[in-house]
Amino acid sequence: ETGVTQTPRHLVMGMTNKKSLKCEQHLGHNAMYWYKQSAKKPLELMFVYSLEERVENNSVPSRFSPECPNSSHLFLHLHTLQPEDSALYLCASSQADRVSGYTFGSGTRLTVV
Amino acid sequence: GNSVTQMEGPVTLSEEAFLTINCTYTATGYPSLFWYVQYPGEGLQLLLKATKADDKGSNKGFEATYRKETTSFHLEKGSVQVSDSAVYFCALWTQKLVFGQGTRLTINP
């Protein structure tokens, strides 16, 4: 399988639940990203990993916890979320420092109830 | 800091109409410029790009020219189709991608 794959596609969770979003890329890229896309808001960059090290964390609440165990996999661990965290969470990958653009996954549509 | 400004949406056109979506940028140095498209229920897909001034990116009938003198990268298509209905994002890259706010395009048959 090629490209960037995100699972699950849809997730409904209660505010006290713990869940994880998974992202996998088979493009040989060495940088991975989490974005949040909410209705009527610009895309928000949450986290950046380059060569498996977190290089950017844009003031994201601690209830979101990323993990990058290797260059092909990226997780976003979720716990005690709020309804305003409901959004589309997009993963992307790229070759760091190369002008090739990012390849995005299809996203996980998260609903917090 | 670097930023991208796109025309406000939503934009609604009839099939076969001419499309322009404006994009201007502010950046230090010489960014590369991109257009991404997001179809309903999907992630973003790279539509076209240009890496230096006066370059023209093109794909699927869409075009955009990197204009350094006006710091613009407007997206154009001569004859749109219903299947072009999507959200379009302009972006610039220096060491990371910076996106505009997106423009929703709806094409009516």
Question: How would you characterize the overall build of this protein?
Answer:
The complex is a heterodimer of chains A (113) and B (109). Chain A is 0% helix and 57% strand. Chain A is mainly beta. In chain A, strands 2, 4, 5, 6, 9, 10 and 11 form a 7-stranded mixed sheet that branches. In chain A, strands 1-3-8-7 form a 4-stranded antiparallel sheet, with no helix packed on it. Chain A is globular and about 40 Å long. The model of chain A has no long low-confidence stretch (mean pLDDT 91). Chain B is mainly β. Chain B contains no helices and 12 strands. Chain B has strands spanning 3-6, 11-14, 19-21, 23-26, 32-38, 44-50, 56-59, 62-65, 75-77, 86-93, 97-99, 103-108. In chain B, the strands form 3 sheets. In chain B, strands 2, 5, 6, 10, 11 and 12 form a 6-stranded mixed sheet that branches. In chain B, β10 and β11 (97-99) form a beta hairpin. The mean pLDDT of chain B is 94. Chains A and B meet through β10 of A and β5 and β6 of B.
Profile the largest sheet of chain B. 6 strands, mixed
Category by helix and strand content of chain B: mainly beta
So what's the overall shape of chain A? globular
Q: Specify the overall morphology of chain B.
A: globular
Unreliable stretches of chain B: none
Q: If helices are DSSP runs of H or I spanning 4 or more residues, what is the number of helices of chain B?
A: 0
Q: Indicate the proportion of strand residues of chain B.
A: over 45%
Give the helices and strands, then pairings:
The complex is a heterodimer of chains A (about 110) and B (about 110).
Chain A: E1 4-7, E2 10-13, E3 18-25, E4 31-37, E5 44-50, E6 53-57, E7 64-70, E8 73-79, E9 87-94, E10 103-104, E11 108-112
Parallel strand pairs in A: 2-11
Antiparallel strand pairs in A: 1-3, 3-8, 4-5, 4-9, 5-6, 7-8, 9-10, 9-11
Chain B: E1 3-6, E2 11-14, E3 19-21, E4 23-26, E5 32-38, E6 44-50, E7 56-59, E8 62-65, E9 75-77, E10 86-93, E11 97-99, E12 103-108
